[in-house]
Design goal:
- This protein is mostly helical.
- It has 7 helices and no strands.
Length: about 160
């Protein structure tokens, strides 16, 4: 049990960035992101003994994080407003300020997508293949392609393009 506990902590420390990315896509408030982080870690711990393919740890973490997030959203179905615009006074240089604003705009646009499409776009931006995305989400790779194209069109429309 001790070795299992240590292995889990090593994996968690190496891959916790995935959980943070998923939380940024799904939750607008810091409190909700922190709550969901704990829930994801709990669900990872529960399912850790059944992890068979140690080569696909990242995919496993994405799958658990996405499923946990969607479950939380459905359970707590409510409209959440962005807490605040990031404090740019700590950022040095106009380029970094512009990047932060662009990132916030991207997050806002991604929040307009439904839960599954958000997951797909997150994994797509992380350069997962259609087949890998399909495996993580339990849908066909054709469906992944269709949803990516639709999401791109929707995001382009939000940017003012046609």
């Amino acid at each position: 049990m001790k070795q299992s506990h240590e292995d889990f902590l090593k994996i968690l420390s190496g891959y916790q960035g995935i959980i943070h990315k998923v939380n940024l896509i799904y939750f607008k408030t810091v409190t909700d992101r922190e709550d969901n982080f704990q829930e994801v870690v709990y669900n990872l711990w529960k399912s850790f003994p059944s992890l068979k393919d140690k080569e696909k740890i990242g995919s496993w973490i994405y799958a658990v994080a996405i499923n946990t997030s969607i479950t939380k959203i459905r359970k707590d179905y409510r409209v959440i407003l962005m807490e605040s615009v990031p404090d740019t006074s700590e950022v040095n240089g106009q380029d970094e300020i512009d990047q932060e604003i662009d990132f916030q705009q991207l997050l806002e646009m991604l929040h307009t997508l439904n839960e599954i499409d958000r997951s797909i776009m997150l994994l797509y931006m992380e350069e997962y293949s259609y087949n890998e995305i399909a495996g993580i989400l339990g849908i066909t790779s054709t469906n992944v392609g269709v949803r990516i194209n639709r999401a791109k069109k929707q995001l382009k429309t939000l940017l003012g393009g046609k």
